[in-house]
Amino acid sequence: MTIWVDADACPKVIREVLCRAAQRTGVELVFVANQLLTVPKAPNIRALQVPKGFDVADNEIARRIAPTDLLITGDIPLAAEVLAKGAQALNWRGDAFSKETIAAQLTMRDFMDNLRASGVQTEGPPPLSQGDRQAFARQLDIWLARR
């Protein structure tokens, strides 16, 4: 059982929540990024640096993830890929990705990408709130308790 983190865009506050949970429970926690990350010195927490490039970190996570694992990401296509492998995925706002809703999320993502590509200005996601942080911590605790 491992928690994999798509760490290039992961908010610092979420990394902190994950590290505290890993230190408390002993679950293996791996941050995957194309930049050097500093993580707490603990035998169950590590950073895996991959080469720079499009989807290199995503591909490494998808290659290594197991059905008993959890992915933390904001990347909907990556979430879809790990769900297909039987793993679970959670975004940093505490929303669980599911096999039932991932197709609709991919469709909406593609629609928004097409709008932006055609010159339509769209708003990005709102900043991470205290409520988002709490929702994430709650969903993480639920996942850990099931293990």
Key attributes of the depicted protein:
147 residues, alpha/beta, 6-stranded mixed beta sheet, UPF0178 protein ABH309_14855, UPF0178
Describe the structure concisely for a colleague.
The protein is of the alpha/beta class and 147 residues long. It has 5 helices and 6 strands; from the N terminus they run E-H-E-E-H-E-H-E-E-H-H.
Characterise the protein shown here:
This is UPF0178 protein ABH309_14855. By secondary structure, this protein is α/β, with parallel strands linked by helices. It is 44% helix and 16% strand. It has five helices and six strands, in the order βαββαβαββαα. The protein has helices at residues 12-25, 56-64, 76-84, 102-117, 130-146; strands spanning 2-6, 28-33, 45-49, 70-72, 88-90, 96-97. Strands 3-2-1-4-5-6 form a six-stranded mixed beta sheet, with helices on both faces. β5 (88-90) and β6 form a beta hairpin. The longest helix is centred in the C-terminal third of the chain and has 17 residues, at 130-146. The model has no long low-confidence stretch (mean pLDDT 91).
Beta-strand percentage? 15-25%
Q: Major beta sheet, specifics?
A: 6 strands, mixed
Q: Share of helix among residues?
A: 40-55%
String of helices and strands: EHEEHEHEEHH
What's the β-strand tally?
6
Number of helices: 5
Instruction: Give the helix/strand class.
Output: alpha/beta
**Poorly predicted sequence stretches spanning 5 or more consecutive residues:** none
Strand order of the largest sheet: 3-2-1-4-5-6
Query: Mean pLDDT, nearest integer?
Result: 91
Radius of gyration, in Å, reads 15 Å
Shape category: globular
For the record, give the distance between the C-alpha atoms at the N and C termini, rounded to a whole number: 8 Å
